[in-house]
Amino acid sequence: MSKNILILPGDGIGPEIVGEAVKVLDELIAQGLDVSYENALVGGAAFDACGHPLPETTLKKAREADAILLGAVGGYEWESLDISLRPEKALLGLRSELELFANLRPAILSRQLADASSLKAELVEDLDILIVRELTGGIYFGQPRGVETLENGEKRGFNTYVYTESEVKRIAHVAFKAAQKRQKRLCSVDKANVLEVTEMWREIVIEVARDYPDVELTHMYVDNASMQLIREPKQFDVMVTGNMFGDILSDSAAMLTGSIGMLPSASLDASAKGMYEPIHGSAPDIKGQNIANPLATILSLAMLLRYSLNEEQFALNIEQAVNSVLDAGLRTADIYTDGTEKVSTTEMGQAVRSALSKSGSNS
Ligand code: IPM
Ligand code: MG
Fold this sequence. Notes:
Isopropylmalate Dehydrogenase, 14 strands, 41% helix, binds magnesium ion
């Protein structure tokens, strides 16, 4: 039976960039990739259509799908909604309902974009970091949480930073396995000097390390890690950390590449079913202008094919096609520099498809 992909375009620039990725998928299907796909509403778009950012029908389709490709969610029009109805809740709901606990966020500096970083070229040349972020636990999901009013009328807000041993173990295994396939260096990031929960995190990671004697394990406090990322980013190979620290560090790491519009991500469950999305957000300020960079979403499709569908060759073909359009000097506005050719979202998508159709006819 052919595999099924659920497409969730979402809000802002989501529909435009996902539209280009779907056309890439169509090209691969024409070349023989055996998958089917269907769309569903998520985020603000779903709220507008049916009053909830993650409708039951979407969740059902997401459970049934073999993999999910998501654009982005959120926008100004939904910012005043109750937190339980905001578009971001759909993302958190999908992550937790589908147990997508392992978030892989690569920060790779494309050779053609070496000048795009705000750091000196020698600090970031050939940068290739993988952040493994725990995605379904920690302070994002801990109970109790809320805002209460005390007897004296003062408000008190609270969230809970909690991890169980098994949650730490499973993300640590993912990170060690990833490191084994790379430079075999893993840095675990915590705040063990202050927070008991992360002191426990550190102890468990050390325990799991016994299964991976070939991987060199180091530990770093999160404040230092955020500094080291900017000071000497190439010291890192794989970083593993909890949900909130990972949220923050992965944005910094992405920006080291100077082109957040280029970076894909994967959120996987224990059986490698996953949701794939660009690292950037819904960018409502440039929505509908046909200027957003579709490459992070197209590269997310490549990750989807590799991790969830086991279609390594098609994944490689996409990555090579993206490389060749960058080699040819095509750039969307976010990565444009003098001497390159500025193209629109749809032109960039079209260029990737032409490159792909060439690789398809050669293979
Ligand atoms: C991310 C985003 C989300 C997060 C938001 C949109 C809920 O920042 O995927 O990094 O905080 O996890
Ligand atoms: Mg984030």
